[in-house]
Q: What sequence folds into this?
């Protein structure tokens, strides 16, 4: 789409508006992210941490791409944004089995961006004719930019789909998908295609990175580290997306060795499933790893490593985040926002079955120090600890894994 170049005055107004759009207000970005990740059509994207993070990166990429183009050449057509951020999300969508219909998020984002741009435009001039001319050109530009970008991303998705239907990687992904879906594939055939025995106990994991500039090669090193921590030579690793690996190892990775390995791999996060044998164990462990990953994302947890057995209760309690927040607030009262030393002390005390001596030893503090902290914590609870010990323990578990505001 093309249009006559606007007069110099309108070009100058567009340039000034684009400079404002280059530094968008945080609440604008939050609204844009919320809109593009809401609704039934985008539920699968919002539930997937890697896809959700990629969508947020794409929102910023598109906004800054259009704004920067209009600073350089105000009012001129903007080419499609086929940079790495939107292309990476396109690859990930295809690898999750999504199609081009997932790109309706671009249209949702366009409507939010148009409203934001209109608000900016209304601050640039009081002249109705200037405002009309400014909006006429810039809204055409936004529409054409989104159309061209969606077309470019659709073409990339078609190419990615063609690539994934060829070669050994496609065969491995297809086999894993059949196993996870419970399809009638024999164990012998699946083992032959995967190069991985299915009878022994399995532990599945999901390794991913949600930082925009993460070194994705570290994901493969994380998969190898999981195998080493389980005493294995190599893992079964499947590329689930540009920034996600699905991993299976025989046995169970040692938690301390896994945690030490992750310290050397910044930006990588790992969710580890349960351990169980056979094809059912292969499937069950992956679903548990997925539950763990989704819980970390749902709670905005800062933790980079979580095992399913550590978070199973918290995952159940926080399936409805709003109800979970209310439960924590009602149960902990003022203790919810108390210093971490109080909440950590009470959590360890409960984990040690209310044995003050063992809890003090675990926290490396004097027993009297521990008792003073417990008294302070008890005083902050809405009800005495002795009256609802189980509820307090559960709420503290949620608090432990939830990112503090």
A:
């Amino acid at each position: 789409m093309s249009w006559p170049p606007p007069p110099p005055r309108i070009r100058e107004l567009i340039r000034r508006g684009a400079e404002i759009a280059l530094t968008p207000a945080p609440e604008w970005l939050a609204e844009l992210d919320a809109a593009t990740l809401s609704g039934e059509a985008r539920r699968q994207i919002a539930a997937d941490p890697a896809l959700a993070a990629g969508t947020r990166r794409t929102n910023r990429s598109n906004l800054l791409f259009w704004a920067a183009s209009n600073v350089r050449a105000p009012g001129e057509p903007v080419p499609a944004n086929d940079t790495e951020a939107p292309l990476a999300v396109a690859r990930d969508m295809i690898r999750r089995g999504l199609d081009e219909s997932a790109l309706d998020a671009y249209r949702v984002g366009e409507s939010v961006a148009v409203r934001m741009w209109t608000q900016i435009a209304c601050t640039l001039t009081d002249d109705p004719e200037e405002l009309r001319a400014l909006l006429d050109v810039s809204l055409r530009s936004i529409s054409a930019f989104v159309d061209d970008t969606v077309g470019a991303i659709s073409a990339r998705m078609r190419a990615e789909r063609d690539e994934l239907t060829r070669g050994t990687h496609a065969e491995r992904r297809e086999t894993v998908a059949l196993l996870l879906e419970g399809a009638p594939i024999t164990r012998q055939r699946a083992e032959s295609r995967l190069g991985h025995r299915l009878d022994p106990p399995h532990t599945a994991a999901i390794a991913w990175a949600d930082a925009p500039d993460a070194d994705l090669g570290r994901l493969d090193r994380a998969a190898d580290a999981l195998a080493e921590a389980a005493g294995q030579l190599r893992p079964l690793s499947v590329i689930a997306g540009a920034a996600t690996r699905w991993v299976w190892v025989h046995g169970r990775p040692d938690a301390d060795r896994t945690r030490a390995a992750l310290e050397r791999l910044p930006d990588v996060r790992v969710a580890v499933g349960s351990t169980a044998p056979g094809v059912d164990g292969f499937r069950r462990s992956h679903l548990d790893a997925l539950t763990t990953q989704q819980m970390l994302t749902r709670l905005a947890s800062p933790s980079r490593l979580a095992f399913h057995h550590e978070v199973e209760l918290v995952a159940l309690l926080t399936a409805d985040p709003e109800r979970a927040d209310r439960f924590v607030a009602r149960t902990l009262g003022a203790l919810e926002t108390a210093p971490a030393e109080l909440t950590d002390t009470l959590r360890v005390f409960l984990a040690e079955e209310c044995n003050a001596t063992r809890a003090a030893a675990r926290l490396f503090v004097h027993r009297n120090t521990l008792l003073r902290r417990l008294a302070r914590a008890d005083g902050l609870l809405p009800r005495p600890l002795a009256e609802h010990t189980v509820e307090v323990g559960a709420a503290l578990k949620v608090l432990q894994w939830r990112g503090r505001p």
